Amino acid sequence: MISRTLSLYKNAYSGLSPSTWWLSFIMLVNRSGTMVLPFMTIYLTASKGYSIGMAGVVMALFGLGAVTGAFLGGKLTDRIGYYPVQLIALLGGGVLFMVLGQMQSFPLICLFTYLLSLVNEAFRPANSTAIVAYSKDNTRTRSYALHRLAINLGWAVGSALGGVLAARSYQLLFWVDGATNIMAALLLVYLLRPSKQAKPVKEETVKDPLHSAYRDKIYLWFILLTILFATCFFQLFTNLNAYYKIVLHFNEQFIGLIGAVNGIMIAVIEMVLVFKLENRRSSLFYIIRGTMLVGIAYLMLNIFHIDHIMALLMIIVMTMGEILVLPFMNTFWTSRSADHNRGEYAGLYTIAWSIAQTAGPFLASQLAERAGFTALWWALGAMSFATAAGFFWLKKKLEG
């Protein structure tokens, strides 16, 4: 039994390129400092004294900056290549994290949150394009899964350490987050120097019927549904943490532990599960079921009395949904793109998440402030199931 399990893990991780491993290691270092975003709403309300509605405004500006950064990052990736865009975004984001932590007035916090997000999110389309460049068709989903494993291992470390640091001083979160960004940039230079792969392919040399992501109607429907899913999903890092603190009175250490459970589960389960599921069914088949699990997780917050044990059970259900959705979303968008427009497809996919990051926390915070968290969890559960129905419709449209 043990040898069979070890063999399964070995097979799940075999066949990936060295560059894919190095890229994932760099992401692990970067995300081990992910502390500001999961604690930003708590920082603004508990430490700075702003209302949940004002915190929602800041998080909306974070999302707005992400939309701008994703668009620019996608365009720049197709023009100058994924390597320089990643390097600039990591260095610039590191500096801006440190600067944001020094801001005291609400307008300056809003301004530098937007600028930080713009620079930071320009990294994502370039990074997604790099994963495609360093992988093969038959290892692409696992390459993204490995990347997400690195992200979530880093998230587990960052959440757990962030909870400890936040209990001492919220300022430490900004310094550590910025430092890991800069460290990741230095590792990128040392471990993955520019190569011929990093140069974008000129559009005129490629004959492909899908010249632009913005003309791909199937992809645009997919993007709309991704926005709806991500709007629900992003509450995991914003208003859900505020609910834990404000309503359930969980301390920062336990909130950090919940985030760590999410990351550890993904690290242990996702690669093996993707290895077993990849190429057996369509990507949308798994996305539909994962979206439904996310909806069930939100409904649990109203159906059950939430103590520490139930909070951990809820995050387990949520994480299983995440594992089924996110790797296969990446598989779907890469399958629609070509070398000359991959940055644009990646940029639009990142924009979808950024729009959700703009609208989701803001609208949800306003609903929570006016109607209470109970109404918010009912709404998110219903929205998740409606989104799953939309993905089912898209699957039928592709099959028909």
UniProtKB/TrEMBL annotation:
Bilayer disposition of the protein: Multi-pass membrane protein
Record keywords: Cell membrane, Membrane, Transmembrane, Transmembrane helix, Transport
Domain Major facilitator superfamily (MFS) profile span(s) in chain numbering: 1-399
Residue stretches spanning the membrane: 21-44, 50-73, 80-100, 106-123, 144-166, 172-192, 218-237, 257-277, 284-304, 310-333, 345-363, 375-394
Signal peptide residue numbers: none
Keyword Isomerase belongs to the record: no
PANTHER family in the record: MULTIDRUG RESISTANCE PROTEIN MDTH, RESISTANCE PROTEIN MDTM, PUTATIVE-RELATED-RELATED
Main location: membrane
Xref: Pfam families: MFS_1
The protein's name in its UniProt record: MFS transporter
Keyword Ribonucleoprotein annotated: no
GO MF entries: transmembrane transporter activity
